[in-house]
Amino acid sequence: MNLASENIIVLIICVVGFCLLGFGFTNRDRNWGVAMMWVGVLTMLGPIAWRLLTLFA
Length: 57
Hints:
This protein is an all-alpha fold. The chain is 88% helix and 0% strand. The protein is built from two helices and no strands. The protein has helices at 3-26, 31-56. Helix 1 runs antiparallel to helix 2. The two termini are 19 Å apart.
């Protein structure tokens, strides 16, 4: 896999995480909305951490 396609995959995962975060925020008064916000945050931070680990390791 080349670098351009890896960047696109990371970008798509971050956008999905941002959408989960936003959808969870609109439903934050329910328990599943708060859980969806956590899943969105972890989905966004996961590829960023993976990118940093592969960059510096």
